[in-house]
């Protein structure tokens, strides 16, 4: 049996269909398991990706509540936020930041949001929603070559670009309250998209909070944590490790860890609803010793020389101003998805 999602302008209906035929996808054409590729129930581009969305500044925002989640990104002097409430309905936003062409892509079924570079091998492209899923996760396609990409796998999985790795940029998933406090000069994508959608309604019933409600079955199933628990995953050389909010209680918490032979540091806060991770060095390779900074968002870290760093790792005050901590390859997501994509992955224990 498979579920198909049928969208109207305001609602998402879940309809159960019987499916006894073998997969129509040919394994030799895909680098992922073809039998686990599912038709999500909507045609290609039926979920419309946004292009160059309308933006407003923080003081003009009246359509978000403090506990609404956003995906934020920052380059240099420019910061933008992309509300979950809009991404639920569009999943992909093709945009630019500081003259860098980016694709914000979010899968509401796995709770995973990230940013990819739209310049691939010297060719500019946009991404669209294919209507296909792999392990319940979004399979975007790039319009330049029609190649499909596995979002959580971070690479093209068929077509001309099969095997090509996605170039990611660091994003932060957090609440609107934390974002607007930390980046009051940023801009935010508005509900004025040109499409008729109810951006104030969550279209998947109680999916976010009901650990027993799965629209699509995935395997393997890992029951070590609740299925929809939001965790921060770090990926290196195809191996992943996850970190829970329960490790980041009582203000800004700094964790030092070793993963795949590399020293990494994580900073996060349950109250402020964010977790970020970096290599324990600057982008130029210089090692740093860090401690947490309290009550100064967006500043969260300080090194032994007195340089202070913001949530994106930028040195904003002190001797190393202008430098940046090297981000890990990481993003937030529901636990069940991490367990399915990276079987047996390690869960950090303090």
SS class: mainly beta
Tell me the strand order in the biggest sheet. 4-8-9-10-17
Number of domains: 2
Level of helix content?
Answer: under 10%
What would you report as the Rg, rounded to the nearest angstrom? 20 Å
Approximate shape:
globular
| Proportion of residues in extended strands | 35-45%
Name the poorly predicted regions: 1-22
The count of strands amounts to 31
Distance between the termini: 41 Å
Overall mean pLDDT: 92
Give an overview in words:
- The protein is mainly β and 350 residues long.
- It has two domains: 2-189, no CATH class; 230-347, Rieske Iron-sulfur Protein, CATH 2.102.10.
- 6% of the residues lie in helices and 44% in strands.
- The chain has three helices and 31 strands.
- The protein has helices at 84-90, 176-182, 335-341; strands at residues 2-7, 12-17, 37-39, 50-51, 55-57, 69-75, 78-83, 92-97, 100-107, 112-117, 119-120, 123-124, 127-134, 137-142, 148-150, 155-158, 168-169, 172-175, 187-189, 230-236, 239-244, 253-259, 262-269, 274-282, 290-296, 299-303, 308-310, 315-317, 325-327, 329-334, 346-347.
- The protein has a five-stranded mixed β-sheet with strand order 4-8-9-10-17. The protein has a five-stranded mixed β-sheet with strand order 5-19-7-6-18.
- The longest helix has 7 residues, at 84-90.
């Amino acid at each position: 049996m498979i579920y198909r999602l049928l969208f109207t302008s305001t609602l998402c209906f879940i309809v159960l269909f019987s499916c006894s035929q073998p997969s129509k996808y040919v394994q030799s054409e895909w680098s992922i398991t073809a039998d686990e590729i599912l038709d999500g129930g909507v045609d290609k581009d039926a979920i419309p990706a946004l292009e160059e969305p309308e933006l407003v500044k923080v003081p003009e925002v009246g359509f978000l509540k403090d506990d609404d989640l956003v995906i934020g990104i920052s380059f240099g002097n420019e910061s933008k936020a992309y509300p979950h409430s809009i991404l639920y309905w569009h999943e992909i936003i093709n945009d630019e930041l500081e003259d860098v062409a980016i694709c914000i892509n979010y899968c509401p079924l796995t709770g995973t949001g990230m940013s990819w570079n739209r310049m691939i091998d010297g060719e500019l492209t946009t991404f669209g929603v294919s209507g296909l899923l792999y392990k319940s996760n979004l399979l975007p396609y790039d319009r330049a070559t029609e190649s499909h990409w596995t979002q959580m796998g971070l690479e093209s999985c068929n077509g001309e670009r099969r095997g090509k790795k996605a170039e990611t940029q660091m994003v932060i998933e957090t609440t609107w309250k934390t974002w607007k406090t930390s980046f009051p000069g940023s801009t935010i994508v508005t509900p004025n998209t040109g499409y008729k959608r109810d951006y104030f309604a969550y279209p998947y019933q109680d999916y976010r909070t009901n650990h027993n409600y799965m629209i699509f079955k995935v395997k393997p199933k890992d029951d070590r944590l609740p299925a929809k628990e939001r965790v921060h995953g770090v990926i290196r050389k195809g191996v992943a490790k996850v970190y829970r909010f329960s490790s980041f209680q009582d203000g800004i918490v700094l964790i030092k860890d070793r993963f795949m032979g590399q020293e990494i540091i994580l900073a996060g806060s349950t109250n402020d609803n964010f977790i970020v991770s970096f290599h324990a060095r600057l982008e130029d390779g210089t090692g740093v010793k860090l401690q947490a900074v309290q009550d100064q968002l967006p500043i969260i870290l300080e090194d032994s020389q007195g340089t202070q760093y913001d949530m994106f790792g930028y040195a904003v005050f002190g001797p190393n101003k202008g430098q940046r901590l090297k981000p890990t390859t990481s993003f937030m997501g529901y636990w069940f998805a991490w367990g399915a994509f990276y079987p047996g992955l390690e869960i950090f224990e303090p």
